[in-house]
Design goal:
Layout (H helix, E strand, L loop, with lengths): L1 E9 L4 H14 L5 E10 L4 E7 L3 H12 L11 E11 L14 E9 L4 H15 L7 E5 L6 E8 L2 H13 L12 E11 L7
Length: about 200
């Protein structure tokens, strides 16, 4: 089941102005895929709006992307947009499907680029250690890209606060639960951003 991740970059300090247009656009022109989340970057790479949709198949996702590409006023905020990207991701097989609900409101989005042969070993390492890691805190997504720059690996961790995030990560490292042994050996780049849910986001 593919997930579409659309990232809208807006002019500095204008995401608050852009969000009403994004909301109107999504309501007036619902996509074929299920709308799961609208998140805005708070720490890290700023001025980003991330949309997450779940699709039944890649053809459905491609059709939705085509509508956006041909829009004269994408997301009803074209005057604020400086860049857009959209990519398809596939969830790791042992991670449950992403569903709407209350999770955050802090969402840590970690995006890694893997070595060309790093996906298989990463999935294997995560499969062994994820059950123990999930005893400390839940995970929303662990998925790899099948379009755009490959192979990227995006995982999203919800937390009730930044303090809880810091303490949870500290415990995971000190107890040897995380990161998975050998996992970092397959990485080329690592990036972390903190996102917050928009008021209309089904995932919060």
């Amino acid at each position: 089941m593919p997930y579409d991740v659309t990232t809208i970059t807006v002019k500095p300090n204008t995401h608050g102005k852009a969000l009403p247009g994004v909301e109107r656009s999504l309501k007036a022109n619902p996509r074929k895929g299920e709308f799961l989340a609208c998140l805005t970057s708070e720490i890290g790479d700023l001025n980003k709006i991330m949309l997450l949709h779940r699709h039944e198949n890649e053809a459905e996702a491609a059709a939705d992307r085509d509508v956006v590409a041909n829009s004269a006023n994408p997301f009803e905020c074209v005057e604020l947009i400086t860049a857009m990207s959209t990519d398809t991701f596939v969830q790791f097989p042992f991670i449950p499907p992403i569903t709407p609900g209350q999770y955050g409101p802090i969402f840590e989005v970690r995006t890694y680029q893997l070595k060309p042969n790093g996906l298989g070993p990463t999935i294997e390492a995560w499969g062994k250690m994820t059950p123990a890691r999930l005893k400390l805190s839940p995970i929303l997504a662990a998925m790899y890209s099948v379009t755009g720059t490959v192979t990227r690996f995006m995982h999203i961790w919800p937390y009730p606060s930044l303090d809880v995030r810091a303490n949870t990560r500290k415990t995971a490292i000190e107890t040897g639960v995380w990161p998975p042994p050998g996992g970092p050996d397959h990485l080329l780049t690592m990036r972390t951003d903190i996102f917050l849910p928009a008021p209309f986001s089904p995932i919060r």
